[in-house]
Amino acid sequence: MLIQLTSAIIKAMATGYVYHSIYLQHDTGQHVEVAARLEAIISYLEKTGLKSKLTPIEPRPATVDEIALVHQKSYIKEIEEKAAKGGGALDPDTVMSPDSYQAALYAAGGLIRATEAVMGGEVANAFALVRPPGHHATAGQAMGFCLFNNIAIAARYALGKYKLERILIIDFDVHHGNGTQGTFYDSPQVMYISTHEYPFYPGTGDINETGSGEGRGTNLNIPLPAGCGDSEYLEVFEQVIAPAARRFNPQLILVSVGYDGHWADPLAMMNLSVSGFAKMTGIIKGLADELCNGRLVLTLEGGYNLEALAGSVKATFDVLLGNASGNISGAPPRRSEPPDIESLIGEIKKIHGLG
Ligand SMILES: [Zn+2]
Predict the structure, then answer these.
(1) Does the predicted model carry a pTM greater than 0.85?
(2) Residues catalogued as catalytic
(3) 219-274 tens-digit pLDDT
(4) How far is CA 223 from CA 273, 278, 343, in A?
(5) Contact present, 193 and 170 (Cβ < 8 Å)
(6) pLDDT tens-digit profile of 12-37?
(7) Taking residues 178-194, what's their average pLDDT?
(8) N or C terminus of the chain: which is more exposed, having fewer CB within 10 Å?
(9) Which 8-state DSSP code applies to residue 226?
(10) How remote is the CA of residue 140 from the centroid of ligand 1, in Å?
């Protein structure tokens, strides 16, 4: 009895991670979204001894029916057939190789397995280290390095399997998750909150995109000017995201994690540090503890400076394990004076009735 109880407590404290070598087989050639991203993460987690503290969650391929919770069957077939023919470009940014269809099924399935592990109490929280990423993929279109929308599929899966009524998706990738927003735009069951550089790729993410029909008010965009760093993001988390999350009162929190807001990232112009990412994760973990028994599932989207990416993933795991509060040394160099976002925050609070 005591042994069973102890093992239950250890599991309840555990942080899971999803990884599979199939994720390296999605070959994008000369591209920023490459297998070396995951290789850098895994080798850093091993080198720092952190990997041994995490609980592995074995991914499985998502079924076509699971992918079809979000995507058109004709589109799924198109991706399968293109892989069988050797792959190629899907749009100017997005390419596939022969193994990309399998990798994409395992990416969505990996996040489904992470969600099952958290919902079933196997682990307290989990982070899916997958590729291809997902948040730009729409029902019928690949874009922005994304084939299937992993987080949207996992959310729909969790709504059905666990009969949930409210799932919160937070997306702090530097790009707006147009695919995720579009999937749940008229749904009152999934609230989508995104911080992103704006104006920027993919062009969506305006403050006035707030949801439609029964989903009105459950889409919250925080479009930030270039140059925002830790203090601006933390202010947004405290003043907008935390109160909106408390009001929505989710039963599960899913996070699209992108580290392309790091100051060293080659794609964007934000100024976040590893410490900033850790503090944001700490706030999200605090909200999960407060609102939904700690049920928190993260998935990797962007992040293209390998050193910043690996360090940020480790810091994220440290916070998930409860080992760090985010006070990590090493301030980012300021590119310029940080932008004033007070009036933007005020406008968003007004649109969403957040006091
Ligand atoms: Zn991104």
Answers:
(1) yes
(2) 136
(3) 999 999 999 999 999 999 999 999 999 999 999 999 999 999 999 999 999 999 99
(4) 19, 21, 12
(5) yes
(6) 689 999 999 999 999 999 999 999 99
(7) 98
(8) N
(9) T
(10) 20
Q: How far, in Å, is the centroid of ligand 1 from the Cα of 10?
A: 34
Contact 242, 283 (CB under 8 A): yes
pLDDT at 336 over 90: no
- Alpha-carbon distance 80 to 84, whole Å? 6
The DSSP annotation for 72-96 comes to -HHHHHHHHHHHHTT-EESSSS-EE
| Distance, CA of 346 to CA of 86 (rounded, Å) | 50
From 301, 92, 291, select the one nearest 180 (Cα to Cα).
301
Give the distance (Å) from ligand 1 centre to CA of residue 331: 22
Q: Are 277 and 305 in contact (CB under 8 A)?
A: no
Structure tokens at 36: 């070396």
Contacts (Cβ under 8 Å, ≥6 apart) of 193: 168, 169, 170, 171, 220, 221, 222, 241, 244, 245
Expressed in angstroms and rounded, the spacing between residue 177 Cα and the centre of ligand 1 is: 8
| Residue 245 and residue 168 in contact, taking contact as beta carbons nearer than 8 Å | yes
Phi, psi at 139, each rounded to 5°: -55, -35
